[in-house]
């Protein structure tokens, strides 16, 4: 009987963990631009059965992570999600430290300067500064871009420990299908550039009209790798400018940020 009780408790715990994971997946369904999502849309995005989604959205609404719109019959993110995200951002000292350096480079290059962290197979913007004349890019905090074809993603791959890099590249290979040879060639060139210069590029690989350069900051405290980029219109940021001017300035920015963080 005692054994049955232990097994029952373990099964209950596994179910609770599974429910938590599914609930988090539902929250992840909401992307920039998604004001409202219904249970059917959430089911399609997560692959979860609609009855399961209905139970979880009901629970998440009760906890304040989702709100329900009677008018549209759909859900939207609640203030509890904002509170979590804001707390995470507020605790990132690097954002406060980096802002003046980012502003200076963005205005000099007439481009956008941003900080991103890995979010599965994407890079998530946690800070961004756009110059007053920036065209093409309108990405802001919370925006996501793919690791596979962006300078920010490639810089992350270059900075990761070998086991993590191999694992992530395998995930990208599986997902990219026929595009993998082109993606792999882009990464190999990026790795060469990173080893030689300390930064790497994406020259129309993600979006044809966007050129960008990026480098990584690996915190000494062992926390997650941060990647800084400078991106703008391809007709403004030519490769030679990124190689000879903007890239070195970006390296200097990261050095200044690291030194400032070390003093905190």
From TrEMBL:
InterPro entries: GAF-like_dom_sf, HTH_MetabolicPath_Reg, Tscrpt_reg_IclR_C, Tscrpt_reg_IclR_N, WH-like_DNA-bd_sf, WH_DNA-bd_sf. Residues 17-79 form the HTH iclR-type domain. One of its GO terms (molecular function) is DNA-binding transcription factor activity. Keywords: DNA-binding, Transcription, Transcription regulation. Residues 80-263 form the IclR-ED domain. GO terms for biological process: negative regulation of DNA-templated transcription. Pfam families: HTH_IclR, IclR_C. The keyword DNA-binding applies. PANTHER family: HELIX-TURN-HELIX TRANSCRIPTIONAL REGULATOR, ICLR FAMILY, TRANSCRIPTIONAL REGULATORY PROTEIN. This is IclR family transcriptional regulator. It comes from Geobacter argillaceus.
